[in-house]
Amino acid sequence: MKSIMSYLFLSEVICCVLFALLSSFALASDPSPVQDFCVAITDPKAAVFVNGKFCKDPMKATADDFFLSGLNIPGDTSNPVMSNVTAANVAQIPGLNTLGISMVRIDYAPYGINAPHTHPRATEILVVLEGTLYVGFVTSNLNPGNKLFTKILHKGDVFVFPIGLIHFQFNVGKTNAVAIAALSSQNPGVITIANALFGSTPPINDDVLSKVFQIDKKLSIMSYLFLGEAVFVLLALLSSFSLASDPSPVQDFCVAINDPKAAVFVNGKFCKDPMKATADDFFLSGLNRPGNTSNPVMSNVTAANVAQIPGLNTLGISLVRIDYAPYGLNAPHTHPRATEILVVLEGTLYVGFVTSNLNPGNKLFTKILQKGDVFVFPIGLIHFQFNVGKTNAVAIGALSSQNPGVITIANALFGSTPPINDDVLAKAFQIDNKLVDYLQSRF
């Protein structure tokens, strides 16, 4: 324990210098947009208009711009569908602007449903925290035409709903259910199918709807809503219209496989024949199980990315579960290809990120997070989480890439193979070569 505490103390000194030197090198190339972040504001004075929002003066940005509390509070499910979605998107967290990710908490009463809907701008990855859900999505009209993928999810299970496809979740249990979902857009949009078709303002012409569903114009909306077969017809007919324009890529999904035979190479992976795809390609179990924190930094990251869920290929999102022992640290690191949005499930975390060298140069944004709190770490910036409590802590992080990459700063600099020349590191950190040798021996 003494060596661990010595390491943590020494790392504070090193990381402060390291943050200043390396923040601007977190990306191999400029992302779009080319600033660290663009905190959304409604006042156009002295602001820049980016991605549909005005940017706050970065010198006036604070940690609260990247923070939201309350995702531990159950939503009100006393409504006809007996479910509730609590959003954590750019409307609630202005710092999410331009960063391409958001999060929701979904509460389901017994037999509650998150009714069939689409997100026109986002893929969704969902993890069940409590209860049992029957979930599914339907492909577009093209091959395999209007195929339904379904799965029963239990606590800790993960499922992916590809961008723009009609999907749903239904609580088949006798107790309340809770899920956390991440979406690959700061503002993914929601089109609830029944509401859009039968509750539009002004209403869609009766002749149009009766022709589409081959039903009598006198059939009431409520009667329709209870016709299960008609609902599945609706899913089949409308899946291909869920996007206003083609996303990139232009297929529903590309399940990753290693066998190149009769496959297409997309985003670094071969695509499985879509006729052979199954619900298991979009599924992962086990995110309810604690990770092993018996290591020098006393934390553990359990990934749910394209390596574990092949259906994530091309869909631009992933999840992680992070476990922290008391005083455990998710050491300073970057994700070169992803923004991260994190929600605390248990415990108390001290978190932060440091901006790049440009204005405001190497500014540290920090916050103490409690259960239910949400925080955003912008793409490519050095960030960390530290359990300041005396009990274990758990968090779920969502990242805006199927394979976000991780660069743990201390390991990369002092544990590379072959090692970086002592003179380079001594000069960079203004330290003695012997201290460089000692640090390298630690990694």
TrEMBL record:
**Name of the protein this chain belongs to:** Germin
Q: Where is the Cupin type-1 domain?
A: 69-221, 285-437
The record's principal subcellular location, in a coarse class, is: secreted
Q: Binding residues for oxalate, per the UniProt record?
A: 330, 335, 340
Q: Does the keyword Signal apply?
A: yes
Name the residues that bind Mn(2+): 333, 335, 340, 383
Signal peptide start and end residues: 1-28
- State the GO CC annotations: apoplast
- Bridged cysteine pairs (disulfide): 254-271
Family matches, as InterPro entries: Cupin_1, Germin, Germin_Mn-BS, RmlC-like_jellyroll, RmlC_Cupin_sf
Q: Name one Pfam family in it.
A: Cupin_1
Keywords in alphabetical order: Apoplast, Disulfide bond, Manganese, Metal-binding, Secreted, Signal
